[in-house]
# Entry
Amino acid sequence: MKTKVAIIGATGYTGVELLRLLLHHPEVEVTALTSQKYAGVQIGQVFPSLAKQLQIKCEELSVEQVSKKTDFVFTALPHKTAMETVPLFYRSGKRVVDLSADFRLKDSSVYERWYQKHTAIDLLGESVYGLPELHRDKIRSAKIVGNPGCYPTGALIGLIPLIKKGLISLEGIVVDSKSGVSGAGRDVVLESLFCEVNEGVKAYKIFAHRHTPEIEQEASLLAQKKIAVAFVPHLIPMDRGILTTLYVQLTKKMKTEELLDAFQESYEGEPFVRIYPKGKLPNTKDVRGSNFCDIGAVVSETDGRAVVVTAIDNLVKGASGEAIQNMNIMLGYPEAMGLDVAPLFP
Amino acid sequence: MKTKVAIIGATGYTGVELLRLLLHHPEVEVTALTSQKYAGVQIGQVFPSLAKQLQIKCEELSVEQVSKKTDFVFTALPHKTAMETVPLFYRSGKRVVDLSADFRLKDSSVYERWYQKHTAIDLLGESVYGLPELHRDKIRSAKIVGNPGCYPTGALIGLIPLIKKGLISLEGIVVDSKSGVSGAGRDVVLESLFCEVNEGVKAYKIFAHRHTPEIEQEASLLAQKKIAVAFVPHLIPMDRGILTTLYVQLTKKMKTEELLDAFQESYEGEPFVRIYPKGKLPNTKDVRGSNFCDIGAVVSETDGRAVVVTAIDNLVKGASGEAIQNMNIMLGYPEAMGLDVAPLFP
Amino acid sequence: MKTKVAIIGATGYTGVELLRLLLHHPEVEVTALTSQKYAGVQIGQVFPSLAKQLQIKCEELSVEQVSKKTDFVFTALPHKTAMETVPLFYRSGKRVVDLSADFRLKDSSVYERWYQKHTAIDLLGESVYGLPELHRDKIRSAKIVGNPGCYPTGALIGLIPLIKKGLISLEGIVVDSKSGVSGAGRDVVLESLFCEVNEGVKAYKIFAHRHTPEIEQEASLLAQKKIAVAFVPHLIPMDRGILTTLYVQLTKKMKTEELLDAFQESYEGEPFVRIYPKGKLPNTKDVRGSNFCDIGAVVSETDGRAVVVTAIDNLVKGASGEAIQNMNIMLGYPEAMGLDVAPLFP
Amino acid sequence: MKTKVAIIGATGYTGVELLRLLLHHPEVEVTALTSQKYAGVQIGQVFPSLAKQLQIKCEELSVEQVSKKTDFVFTALPHKTAMETVPLFYRSGKRVVDLSADFRLKDSSVYERWYQKHTAIDLLGESVYGLPELHRDKIRSAKIVGNPGCYPTGALIGLIPLIKKGLISLEGIVVDSKSGVSGAGRDVVLESLFCEVNEGVKAYKIFAHRHTPEIEQEASLLAQKKIAVAFVPHLIPMDRGILTTLYVQLTKKMKTEELLDAFQESYEGEPFVRIYPKGKLPNTKDVRGSNFCDIGAVVSETDGRAVVVTAIDNLVKGASGEAIQNMNIMLGYPEAMGLDVAPLFP
# Structure
């Protein structure tokens, strides 16, 4: 029998992406969609792309109602709302993958510095940071998974082998990310209008983006030492994709091939990580619509600096695809089930 | 046992799209890829999007070699080259879906007026025009299917019910199409450079586009009367998608709802046609990456004119998806097998 | 002494475009900008593109205050608001170019059918439809100029010679227009979000767009016979530009060259109309940022149909540039003054 | 009398941009255009954007012929060809602004390591690196100006005040640049096709881009100490614009406001540099089509790192606009003459 799944907050971009991907998942059936704005409306009318494939109406959120008809819950709500909703599902016995920021940060004081008061501190211990490449084992039995942010996903997958293997100085790490516009969500704001975004590129929230503590938490945990990164996100005129360019200082002499070998070794067996050979570099266009994270790297042998580049689709590996990967792990399905979809090129 | 399939000319945009889709086809295995330019190269190196999903090298075309290891052939070659290659596979007993223009036009003199001398006239009788919505029955047993052009697919699916049911005047039909750039293929020409195309829109080949006779052939056949359409294609700055706006004169008083009902009735049971309700109009963005053809329509009750709008992904329903749909019909598979992929939105 | 100019509603896209162009006008000085939203803010902070070039603060609209410090007024307000504001400036003795729809339609009943109640009907007789290619002489002495809509500008410049010279049937005219997103203005609505628009194309308001009566009014006036056009606007993913494809039936046998000659003759001496030679077709990219309207045409000799294509920048010739052209005519300046700016390519 | 100007290699993107801008220069007349490919063709046919504004035919390059009819020469040739051509004009007594890389690097061995053999080494001493913000005085009397590369312009304008005032460590500087596609020129290559570039972002030539030695030369000269930067260029899907994000380590405690004040002070009086106030960051969209370089900055007070962001239009301040600025300086015209054009927004 298929697992019955709910999507809470189904009408944002991560919601429609969850639906697109879950439609192909052989062991899952979506049985509840909630939406404040579109309650009572067929999902195929909210998103014509889904018409003729899924007959299900959005409903207002009632934890009780949803709990009755589902086995597993994705919450795709804004932070704060997530914090209020997830505990209710938790208490009704549901396992949850939460796509907001509310269950990612382990230290509530860090959360409160970057966001606002946390009202479910007791559950932070229950939740697991949902980056399978880092925490697969803990995710397996987690009750709540805090699905990683899009930028942290791209940054951390590039940093993990470097830190784990002690290849880099933990000082002075630079994380320069370039994101498509869907990362800003479907909120109707001036900054996301076509004519404001198209044919332009800008940096934003320098040293102040809320994904910074998330990158630093996981990097520090891995290094067992406090790491501060200089993280700058940029907005570029495309729908999907995040390219992250990492600048690091190597701790020992290495060639590009050796660095790539270290990545290869670290990610042996990972279903969604692809390491590029020397001389090739990833492009977000080659991962679009898929759960892949592509990685390239170059070493400057003269001064021991290295650049690592990662490419993901922010809505897939950076959000909904990763959430399904986490669900697969939690439910004991093959990790790539429903996610073995090739990128859309061109 | 899976059907073994070859793609001849695998490294253009229709080739990579065939591969993307066939990767999900449960009854098909791709066992041969040919490419003049990339012979000897792993397909995952030609198209990094396909890396880690398909291990197969491009080879130079040898009909003999390919025939040995495959059961079914897609030819994605330029016209003229197709005309020389398809007969060889035909004679070696293979059934072929040809994505070029060479087996679409029934009248060789029409072909020769728009293209060049036809050197396989004897096979024109064998081939079937591969629009399932028109010729499903003939396709079933066809040896050669001439897969429709991208523009004709969008235009004809909009015209079929109107002509079949005698709803419109056969004079004065206007077909105004807007296409993304991938329709021009992967040829390296000035006109396809990013900076030449982006932030602009133009009409091209007015009254002179080679898809005109194709639209007229099928429309005339259906009407059993010679139809001439005014067809103007336009190039717009996006990767994929064709929106076709049809202007017709109704032969009797109708309301918008009645016209839409006629479409609904005509396409009852069609797996890939979606009719929009009154007040909604299709957007190519809602079919991107899928085999759907979305249709909307509006009647001007004051003067009896009507506008019908169709949206397809030119690389899927307008090329590779339709080719697979044809293959499914030819091989007796469920028609939507491998094609039940939801559009990528946004 | 320079003419002192006010822009009422300066912080939309037509407002910033008026400013961009007026900065180069040697005889004009902008001395008042009004904005409800940005009152008190330097215009260079509203639009960083204008920083360091113009030091002027937005103010709340006071007709009295603005009248004191200006000689000439551009109103770039939404319709209805314009209708309430323009009469006040008129009564205070100012000549006005109004960029809204409120003073374009001569017949108030037509206006009221497409918009809402008209509250300044008495001024409709005073106002002139501001298409210089049609009404230059009347514009010269007009007190109020109703600056044409963007679509009507592109459509009418293509139709004028055809109608004037009696070259086409007045029945069955099709006007298929493709517009960039800035035509929708700077309103913060879901439909204008980058991710909703990018990589898609759609038709909208078929037979129902408010520019229809405007095209029909001027075409009918010229023909001295009622003309109904089938007008369908489309939205395409670019900032600026409108391409209009006109489908007409010629009343006599003509070759493409002859049709182009007719255009050439009609527009002899027009500073902003460029006729393309046979075999060349316009692209909005070649007029971007300029006041040009480029025209191409093709005749189908077999059936006497013709296609005429026009390209404009909707914010320049379709709005702010045309408004300045009208101002130049009204004030006796050379018509191209301040508008002799070359298109931005690429 | 106007200065007669030649553009050698007029049919690339920097050529058409020189023409667009020079059309508005009140003291300059373009009297010769050369093009190998389009010799004999009116420039308005090569670039329809220029039609009706400039009547001049492209001709094959003859230094003698061109020298006869011009006073001043812009060479917009590929490197190597430039190196062969510039000396001829020099010897015929013409002053030249060269837009290639051939006269930028002072040390021929550096040039030869990054490019190829240099055949005009004797002229390297004659030439001045044409960044007015650095070398205005020397440019005034230069015979040959090596017009800076697009990336170095954006990087150096961001670095100059920091180095000059000793505000940063000279170690570990990161230069992460994001460029529109026109930076790749008008060469017809696969990588520049619309469908290869659109909806994607990639890094390229990591540690290996030829603009690296140019940035390092000028930065080192200024610091009087050898500086090595980690420079990574990225390609993003837009026509024009370069955003450069600089990561530096401050040598003393500073606030963001103080850093911005330092920039303000350094660039006091510069006609084309705009410093953003705290809390605002530049967007390439706000400089498009103009010669401005916009600058923003943020300090991380906790660890003394700072990020500086600069935005230019790569074809204007990064190429043709800067070339005209240099010409103005060389000829004693006001530096902003012909360049006082407002950015095109949106």
Notes: Chain D touches chain C through 37 residues (CB under 8 Å). Chain D has a mean pLDDT of 97.
